[in-house]
Write a structure and sequence with these properties.
Blueprint lengths: L1 H20 L2 E12 L6 H12 L8 E7 L2 E4 L5 E3 L16 E5 L3 E10 L15
Parallel strand pairs: 1-2
Antiparallel strand pairs: 1-6, 3-4, 3-5
Helix pairs in contact: 1-2
Keywords: Metal-binding, Nickel, Zinc
Pfam family, one: HypA
Family: Belongs to the HypA/HybF family.
């Protein structure tokens, strides 16, 4: 199951970023883009992520996966289409075999939400005047 190695890599990258940011007390959410053609089962990745976060600054963090559909473009006729699963890589318009994969292979961290140990400065709201 390569989802565990992906989860460990994500956790390592987030821990490294948290270390550079300094004073991070907890990671609350990690958002990933996962392409349709990346070969990742999101449910398996979530399960592995939860297990691998135990004992780290990410313990209890939510993993949010944003699905990215596969899209391709035919080089000869410039037609674009949804690749789907199983992937259709020849052009449905001209049957051309020279295609460019535009999206669907993504597997990247796009956002992390964490807390730091600093006390936030109080906001100064104007007090409404009584009438």
């Amino acid at each position: 199951m390569h989802e565990m190695s992906i989860a460990l890599a994500v956790i390592g990258q987030v821990e490294e970023a948290a270390g550079r940011a300094g004073d991070i007390t907890a990671v609350r959410e990690v958002r990933l883009q996962v392409g349709e053609l990346a070969g990742v089962v999101p449910e398996a990745l979530s399960f592995c992520f939860e297990l691998a976060c135990a004992g780290t600054v990410l313990e209890g963090a939510e993993l949010v996966t944003d699905f990215v559909p596969g899209r391709a473009r035919c080089a000869p006729c410039a037609h674009e289409w949804a690749v789907g699963m199983p992937p259709l890589l020849s052009c449905p318009r001209c049957d051309g075999g020279s295609t460019d994969l535009l999206s669907g292979r993504e597997l990247q961290i796009v956002a992390v939400r964490w807390e730091d140990g600093r006390t936030p400065a109080p906001t100064r709201e104007p007090i409404p005047e009584e009438r």
